[in-house]
Amino acid sequence: MFQEHRGQILFLGGALAALVAGWGGFPAVLFQREPQPVAFSHKIHAEKAGAKCDDCHFLRADGTFTGIPTLDKCSGCHAQPMGTTAEEKRFMDRYVTRNREIPWQVYTRQPENVYFSHVFHIKLAHLDCRQCHGRQGQSDALGPARVNRISAYSGSPQFQNMDACENCHRQRGAANSCLACHK
Amino acid sequence: MGFTRRDLLRFSGGSAAGLLLTPVPWTLLHDTAVLTENWPGVPRPRHGEIATRYTTCTLCAAGCGVRARCVEGQPVSLAGVAGHPGSRGALCPAGLAGHHLTFCRGRATEPLAKGKPVGIDHALASVSAAIAECGSGESVAILDARPGRAASLVYRRFLAGLPKAVHCAPPDAQPYGGFGIDLENTRAILSFGARVLDGWLSPGRVLANRSCFQLIQAEAAYSRTASLADVWVPLPPGGEETFAAAVARALQGDDADAQAAHVARILLHNQPAIAIGGGAAAARINQILGSVGRPGGFLPRRDFMPATNIAALPDHSIRVLLIEEPAANDSLPWDVVARKLAQNPMVVALTPWLDGCAQHADYVIPAPVYLESLDEAPTPEGCTVAGFSLSPALLPTPPKLMAPAEFILRLAHDPSAYSEILKQRVAAIKKEARGTIFTYADAKSTRVADFASADDLWKAMLGGAAWFDDPIRSSRTESLPRAGWSNPPAVPSPEYPLVLISADSPPPHGSPLMSKLYRESGLRRSAIAAAVHPETGRAHGLADGGRAIVKIPGDSFTAQVIFDAAVMPGVIQSAGRASSPASIRRA
Question: Cβ B32–A150 below 8 Å, yes or no?
Fold first, then answer.
């Protein structure tokens, strides 16, 4: 039987191997996993410190978005160690004491030709943070960022692609031409 | 049976077919394309803190207020300052792209002597020695691009210590002398070739008032302004004097041709009216119209600092010439400058650019470009009151660069820094306690007298502010300067079969493609260019891009030929030239 269909079986075997490698192995190889420099827990900050999303990630008066807070924001509460864990000590020694900015890994670095405005999406479209960022606000640990080894952009399967933007714009009847995002 | 070559081919064929059903080929294509965005050398804005900073544009004499959006201290976009009394919240295309200048490849980055790098001390010693060797009848001159600044005072102070020295300016640097134009109340403008809608005064101010005045553009070429004017009077090259005289006659009720009579009617029915574009006849029209010293006309202001027109200096009289050239397109045609130089002269270019006059200079002292050093903007061109603003640096000054005023201070062995001179200017404004300070960040005007101290005023101006003097009440009605054209009509003859007329200046360095109005021939850079229609060029044996000698009565100059189908046949266009009959031949 094998000898009789040897050609077809080898062909299908090759195709199957390529499918497995292409769908399973390739994404794992393509994306490099970059761990975050600090073990940060949104959950602890929300539950113990009562912090809300916009305490750290807020819109300035001129509409620009602060994004990831700078060390000044962290130092506001962490001027002295908040606990005795090894991670807290490492954070204090490495960043707060030396006044060094934390080199956070960005999950969704946009290409330079993409114009994205948080204020439009929050104030005009009334999107909830979770719609794009998922349950990051309740997470106990920050996962590693996935950095594309070829393009060097970081991406999340959840929303770092143009299709997701286009679909949402289409559903909501928002501007969907090229120049809406690519200035 | 073993694994044969045929088996391998079948397996590979299956793999290739399977691979097409995976994201591999498509992702590789996409990611490789995206990779090109991150190649080294591709300029990318920084990521980081976004801040708004304020400064004043010094790319031209308009002195527009600038709001800069900066990311991690790097300006990434420039915009006008809303409510600015001079610029009315607008910026021209060059001003909008001013932050690109720092990336221009045509920059001078170190002091040069005859094109070879030298130390700044060597350059200073050589220039000092040349000044000391000046013979009798030879002078030292500084060609000041914009007289009236604190830097101009530095130049004058230096020149005052020399036995024979001249503080001079390009012929068109002070077109209205100590007068400004009350554009807000003007109802008609007769322009003899002035670029009224193409960079004249402050573009924002002109456009804000455009609907309030009739514009009559009288010139030989169908320029950008002519195309947008209410009336275009197509004059023969060099026909400005004749036409102005006809309009003057019509204004006085004498006989004139129909076109001059029509223009005179427009001027009389839309009072107050003015004539601009220089020349004695334009001044005469203003005199007849009573335009000088009344609202809607030319109003005197306080701060006029006269400088000698370089064209009026005796030929072969300058031994050492220091040329300040903030933008290469500001440069005079080199033959005009060369005529003034004595035997064995020394020319020093104080400029950020390697083209323009730097190509002819013995020494090039590289200057910072706009936004790279603390600078100043004097009274905006055509403003009816004196003005002053600082142009704080938004970028660090690159090493080996020196502002022209700093170079002159060092040449004079003056220990002061240019910033101290500027501070003294601000202190003088505070001491006089006249006028108002318009602060860019909050668009508010505050009386100078309300500032507690000169230091407070200095801080306010460093944060982005402009001082505007109080208007003066004066009945001065003296004539306007008569600089500009005063040529007979350019009539072709067998010896001079063509007509030479002035061309539009090329756009400043930066991003000329920001404007759709510039012609391709205007974008090609050359120290001296002569644009001709391709048919005219070929008929005279010229080649596009080649060299040619342009001969005019009593003079000639060499220029790079540019074929431009937009130039009228039979005409040569060259920047900074008066109308004249001319001939052209291959060099």
Answer: yes
Q: What is the CATH number of the domain that holds B296?
A: 3.40.228.10
Q: Residue A24 contacts by C-beta under 8 Å, 6 or more apart in sequence?
A: none
Same domain? For B337 and B397 the reply is yes
Candidates A8, A11, A62: best to mutate against B (most CBs of B within 10 A) is A11
Q: Which pLDDT score, from 0 to 100, does residue B278 have?
A: 60
In terms of C-beta density within 10 A (0-12 exposed, 13-18 middle, 19 or more buried), how is residue A61 classed?
exposed
CB B335 within 8 A of CB B528: yes
Model confidence band, residue B505 (pLDDT cutoffs 50, 70, 90): low
Task: Say yes or no to pLDDT of B31 above 90.
Answer: no
pLDDT band of B487, cuts 50, 70, 90? very low
Query: What span, in angstroms and rounded, lies between the C-alpha atoms of A155 and B197?
Result: 49
DSSP letters of B291-342? -BTSTTSEEE-S-----EEGGGSPTT-EEEEEEE-SSGGGPPPHHHHHTTEE
Q: Which residue in chain B is spatially nearest to A29 when comparing CA positions?
A: B24
**H-run or E-run covering B491:** none
User: Per the CB < 8 Å rule, is B38 touching A62?
Assistant: no
* Residue B573 forms part of a structural domain: yes
Residue A141 in contact with residue A39, Cβ under 8 Å? yes
Establish if A79 touches chain B: CB-CB under 8 angstroms.
no
Average pLDDT value for residue range B309-317 = 87
A53 min Cα distance to partner chain B (Å): 19
B242 and B385 fall within a common domain: no
Phi-psi region of B479 (alpha: psi -120 to 50; beta: other; left: phi over 0): beta
Report helix angle B120-132 to B404-411, nearest 10.
60
Work out how many domains chain B is built from and give that number.
3
Pairing of the two strands B112-113 and B74-80: unpaired
Q: Are residues B288 and B336 in the same domain?
A: no
| Average pLDDT taken over every residue of chain B | 85
**B11–A contact, CB cutoff 8 A:** yes
* Range with the poorest average pLDDT among A27-36, A145-154, B400-409: A145-154
Decide if A11 and B17 are in contact by the 8 Å CB cutoff: yes
**pTM score:** 0.73
Interface test with A, best of B8, B15, B32, B35 (most A CBs within 10 A): B15
Helix (H, G, I), strand (E, B) or coil at B445: strand
ipTM above 0.90, yes or no: no
pLDDT (average), residues A104-112? 81
Side-chain-side CA neighbours of residue B84 (13 Å): 35
Q: Which chain A residue has its CA at the smallest distance from B19's CA?
A: A18
Residue B88 forms part of a structural domain: no
Whether chain B has a CB inside 8 Å of the CB on A30: the answer is yes
